[in-house]
Amino acid sequence: MTTAAFIGLGNMGYPMAGHLARAGLEVTVYNRTRDKADRWVEEFGGRAALTPALAARDAEFVFVCVGNDRDLRQVTLEDNGAVHTLARDAVLVDHTTASATMAETLDAACREKGACFMDAPVSGGQQGAENGQLSIMCGAEPVTFERLSPVLAHYGKTVVHMGAVGQGQLTKMANQICVASVIEGVAEALSFARDAGLDAEKAARVIGAGAGGSWQLINRHATMLADQYDHGFAVDWMRKDLDICLAEATRLGTSLPATALINEFYKEVQSMGGGRWDTSSLLRRLRRHRDD
Ligand SMILES: NC(=O)c1ccc[n+]([C@@H]2O[C@H](COP(=O)([O-])OP(=O)(O)OC[C@H]3O[C@@H](n4cnc5c(N)ncnc54)[C@H](OP(=O)(O)O)[C@@H]3O)[C@@H](O)[C@H]2O)c1
To answer: Where in this chain does the entry annotate a coiled-coil region (predicted)?
Structure first.
């Protein structure tokens, strides 16, 4: 039986680890807040470990899905981190949206242990994780990708090898650049439709069926028009991702003017108390400016 460890049972990690257990892997989980790990074991079987190092011991594949670079460093490289107990030939797979530099650091640490590394950030949200429909962007040696791709298929609908370590994270950055502009565009279109006296719901439906359609417009317009922002990817996470994108763009000497501006808009949403609102709350910011 394939043995796996899963570290970080948040909105994404919890269902992803569940898919692995349901597929028949022997899964040991670790979560900083112990209750969630116990709840997971009750639901899916397997075992909960007290530290990332104990979870990773004897696992063929070690998956991580935590918040940011700092969290990732804590659960992998610092005391009781998973890298310390990685078996020779094991693979550490990181699903966190993190920097490409962090991927390179982890790759070097895994190599020292005779193990392999793959950065594999995801897109598709909590719903995609629950339904096993994620897009997964992978950076790894080809042989490592070959080993992992049947396993990732348990929760990934589109699993793509982008190239060497770090290229998964760079692809996720391009994804977030795209998403930020699309959401701002949808927010501006809905705000404009309202001010023009249109039936905004009807307008969203007809636009969604044509060239202006997008996942964000189709799936988010109804809740945006109802001023409800409590169900998706949080603004705090988007700010973290856009900071990563902008730092990488500076390093590359490439320009991201719209992304930089939308990052400022999200800072404003945070200052409105919206750090945990979902990312479509750019409409609430626009309406506040209109009413001022
Ligand atoms: N949510 C989405 O729609 C979505 C979509 C695509 C990508 N992502 C990315 O996926 C990653 C996880 O997102 P999420 O929504 O699952 O986040 P989340 O619900 O906030 O969960 C974060 C997980 O990381 C753990 N963690 C955080 N800091 C830690 C530390 N220092 N030491 C140990 N464990 C730590 C948390 O443990 P506790 O339970 O103890 O807090 C929790 O298990 C993020 O990088 C995010 O950007 C999220």
So the answer is: none
Q: What is 3-163's CATH number?
A: 3.40.50.720
240: annotated active-site residue: no
Domains of the chain: which residue ranges? 3-163, 170-291
3-39: per-residue pLDDT in tens?
999 999 999 999 999 999 999 999 999 999 999 999 9
Pick the closest to residue 167 from 113, 91, 103, 123 (CA basis).
Answer: 103
The region that residue 59 occupies, defined by phi over 0 for left and psi between -120 and 50 for alpha, beta otherwise, is beta
Question: Which atom of ligand 1 lies at the shortest distance from residue 237's CA?
Answer: 47
Report the distance separating Cα 76 and Cα 7, nearest Å.
Answer: 9
* pLDDT tens per residue, range 96-144: 999 999 999 999 999 999 999 999 999 998 989 999 999 999 999 999 9
* 3-163 and 170-291 have identical folds: no
Q: How far is the CA of 67 from the centre of ligand 1 (A)?
A: 4
CATH 1.20.1250.20 fits 170-291, yes or no: no
> Which two three-digit tokens encode residue 267?
């800072």
Contact 114, 83 (CB under 8 A): no
